[in-house]
Amino acid sequence: MNIFRLAGDMTHLLSILVLLLKIYATKSCSGISRKTQELYAIVFVARYLDLFTDFISVYNTFMKVVFIASSLAIVWCMRFHPMVRRSYDRELDTFRHYFLVGASFALALILHEKFTVQEIFWAFSIYLEAVAILPQLVLLQRSGNVDNLTGQYIFFLGAYRAFYILNWIYRYLTEPHFTRWIACVSGVVQTALYADFFYYYFISWKNNSKLKLPA
Amino acid sequence: DQQESVKDEL
After folding, report:
1. Of A129, A192, A201, A206, most Cβ neighbours within 10 A?
2. ipTM (interface predicted TM)
3. Signal sequence span per UniProt (chain A) (predicted)?
4. Least CA distance to A161: which residue of chain B?
């Protein structure tokens, strides 16, 4: 564990806390893509199948359980909580996310480290995570303005990805056999998807104005 | 040389 990896995990955790806070405090999920949240739930369940087969550390197990539980809880709230579900921007959240699931799974069948069920689901989760933010970014683009908590949620998610890239560079330089091409290439793609959002986030931060995305 | 296959990242 290096400092970049820890910072990445913490900003990831923080992003989820911000999202839970928004939903809990405002009883609203406006501006949040349910499709992106469903994709994250699929990502975590598919990736952490090793919870039952490999023990790495208490920290690792704890974080995995937190990510699975929180992503399922968010999806549950958006689908079934009587007040939260009413605020869902259904008509703006029209990205065909099943297409992303299919494409990611097809890619995992072709590109994986080993041809085993666990490894294919792991690769699938990496590919799906890389593109899971797309429905969310499309929803923001359509709605135009972004409330503070939603903006911070996406900012922390992007920061998590950026820290993971620093972590891989650090590991590549310090560990003799660190090569994880599937995760690293997908991670760079995933982070690149945030570039546009980050640009407008920093502009609004610098001008001390409300975050707005161009139509 | 054994390849590391343990997924230690989240």
Report:
1. A129
2. 0.81
3. 1-25
4. B10
